[in-house]
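I trust your eye. Have a critical look at both lines of this record:
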Amino acid sequence: MRGVSLNIEYDERRHFKMAKGHRSQIKRARNENNRETRPSAKLSYARISVQKACYVLDAIRGKDVQTALGILTYNPRYASSVIKKLLESAIANAENNNGMNADNLVVAACYANKGPTMKRIQPRAQGRAYRIEKRTSHITIVLDEK
């Protein structure tokens, strides 16, 4: 942090006193200590439902990356091609940003969170209309060394 020192003080009753510095500087310094150091990749607004993505993510969780890539290559589900591309991006992040070797990496965590749903209309017979929900998800893959 550039020139910002955090002087956290307590009074005689061990109550927290105000820290010195602007609120954003204090928050930035606090978040630097809690930053995740494991390499990861995130895909936001993927056009696949969370449930369908989780079928594939459950198959690769805890596996080493070479095994996971093999599983994704021969998995017939549509989500596997999307997740394979994301896993390759996470491996590249580990090699380039963290200096890790791809042979020693495992899929530490992978999960899909719900994204916004696009609502569309399907015309039906006799003037009716059905609602179609096109679901999206946010997929995250976190790697770690063996």
